[in-house]
Each structure stands twice: as structure tokens, then as C-alpha cells.
Specification:
Shape: elongated
Number of domains: 2
Number of strands: 6
């Protein structure tokens, strides 16, 4: 069964940074910017390119910075072939009514607590600066 591709909307929401060398922690692939020789340690880019020749599925060169985000506590490369973000997008979308109800209940609880704290603060004497 082929998993659907993660939507651009979900990937856009997930995006939190970019770099020249990022490991996708979901599939253990190494993604690197192969035109950024000045940003690597001496011999590091050459080593990555050599590893790409031996294992092209694990070492993936990019012609630009690698965009990534944090998902479930792990780094996820946005255009990684593993497409691991798709199952999270499906979970979130298919559970949207549950998630929405949770957010509403949680926000109401925080709002009630904030209102209580405002009432307590209103009873305190005013601070005057000299």
C-alpha cells in the first residue's frame, strides 16, 4: 500500500529551520547541501559524496539548504523519501474533532484560571513608583 504524499500545508506548518547537513531521524538518511563546500570541514563534503556513490539511498545530496522540522521529538527532513510526516498529518486530520475539543477545553480551563488570578490581583494594593 502506497502512502499518500504529505501535503504542502502540513510541511509548511512543520518547517522550523534549514541547514547544510541534516539527518532525518525517522529513517536515518543523511541529507546534505552538495554545493556548500566552504561550510563543511575539510574533506567532509568529499566524504559525503563518496558515501553517496556507495549508498545513494542513505546519503542524499541537495542543491540547496535542507529544510527540516521537529515532529514527535525528532528531526524530519521535509522532502525525505521516507515521507514519515504523512502518517502524522493523517492522524491529526482524522482526529481534528478530538483535537479541537481538547484545545477548547484546555483554553477554557486556562481562561478560568486567568480570570481568577485577575480577581485576586484586583484586591492587592496599588504599587506606586517614587
Amino acid at each position: 500500500m502506497t502512502q499518500k504524499k504529505t501535503s504542502d500545508e502540513f510541511l509548511s506548518a512543520l518547517l522550523s529551520g534549514s541547514g547544510i547537513l541534516v539527518d532525518c531521524e525517522f529513517c536515518k538518511r543523511t541529507h546534505f547541501f552538495n554545493d556548500s563546500v566552504q561550510d563543511f570541514e575539510e574533506g567532509e563534503l568529499e566524504d559525503l559524496l563518496e558515501k553517496t556513490q556507495k549508498n545513494p539511498d542513505k546519503y542524499i545530496p541537495h542543491s540547496d539548504f535542507i529544510e527540516y522540522g521537529r515532529l514527535d521529538g525528532k528531526d524530519y527532513v521535509l522532502d525525505c523519501p521516507c515521507n514519515s510526516a504523512a502518517k502524522y498529518e493523517d492522524l491529526f486530520w482524522n482526529s481534528r474533532s478530538i483535537i479541537s475539543a481538547y484545545f477548547k477545553a484546555r483554553a477554557n480551563k486556562q481562561w478560568t484560571k486567568a480570570q481568577r488570578e485577575v480577581k485576586l490581583a484586583e484586591g492587592l494594593p496599588e504599587f506606586k513608583q517614587s
